[in-house]
Design goal:
NAD(P)-bd_dom_sf; Rossmann fold; 5 helices; three-stranded mixed sheet; oxidoreductase; mainly alpha
Length: 156
């Protein structure tokens, strides 16, 4: 769970962003497992995760502004400038695919198919080894229940 905690005195925008994305994946995969365990049909509830790739949003420019290093700012600016930064509409297709494509299966991770998943049409993509850790997913789930005071249960 240390990877998911960002201490204020050691705050780094990119580390916090990565931790939030890891938590999203862990949570989505754990929800999928719990729904299956409860016998919930994917036609009733589907838990999937997705990412847009690199888009023309303000995320990268705003992220660059949090760094003092001219080199890091230049690298982030360069990545955002290259032709693989697709439109926001193209990036949104991955979310729409998760929400509407009847071929999407619970527990999948949808992202763009292009170079390093920076751009392209939606498809199932692999996620990191950390994101498929059953132990980390369970810990995150239990900590989420503890912090919210809400226990997950499925009722008919």
């Amino acid at each position: 769970m240390k990877q998911l905690s960002v201490k204020p005195k050691n705050y780094d925008a990119m580390s916090a962003y990565r931790a939030s994305k890891l938590a999203n994946l862990l949570f989505a995969y754990e929800l999928h497992r719990r729904l299956e365990k409860c016998g919930i049909s994917p036609t009733q509830v589907l838990s999937v995760a997705c990412h847009p790739g690199v888009t023309e949003s303000n995320l990268l420019p705003n992220l660059a502004s949090t760094y003092n290093s001219v080199i890091i700012k230049a690298i982030i600016g360069f990545v955002h400038w290259l032709p693989w930064a697709q439109s926001n509409a193209q990036g949104a297709l991955n979310i729409l695919c998760c929400a509407t494509d009847p071929n999407v299966v619970g527990g999948e991770f949808i992202g763009p198919h292009g170079l390093s998943e920076f751009y392209g049409w939606p498809r199932t993509v692999a996620s990191s080894k950390q994101s498929i850790s059953l132990d980390k997913a369970r810990q995150l789930w239990e900590e989420s229940e503890r912090l919210t005071g809400i226990k997950f249960s499925v009722k008919d």
